[in-house]
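Q: Got one fold?
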Amino acid sequence: MIRRIDRLDQLFLPKRSPVGSYTVNEYDQVRAFIVLSHAEVEEYIEAMCLDILQRAEVRWNSSGFAGACIAALMLYNDKQTKPPKSLALQAQKDTVDEIVKSAFQKHRRLAERDNHGVKETNLLRLLLPIGFKESDFDGIWLGVMNSFGANRGMVAHRSASRVHNPPDPTISRRQVQDVLDGLLLLEGVFARIKRR
């Protein structure tokens, strides 16, 4: 991901203008940098989430071990199941294995298809249910992610002719670097959860 974003920087971001003035084409290139960098970050987070899910599912299927990921999945699972009065009356879909399998499927679908962003709400929906703790997140970095997601939305969903303040390449470059710096810190959390 870092190599790809470095490549996007080289391809799209103009050299810093001493007076802060850029051509229409250069502003369009900055817009491309923002959208494509956002896609790389979003894909990276989703891929890490899927990797953790797969490892936890393999561990569960091979040994029945419910580590941090499964514990978190069950905590955030919206299915409230009560113990049956009799095993003969228990519905097949209400067994522990089926509930865990369903939670894996639902979260995998979120990471593969239903996640649409990198703002705080997206990150918490993806990462808390796989074993992240609230204390694993830096509040300032979550603010950076909210701003990054909002900038991407503004660039991707508005015509350049409607934008009064075009994206500054220096600020855009700095924002993406701040995003990457925060992701680097989360690498340790991903590694910890993979081991548990």
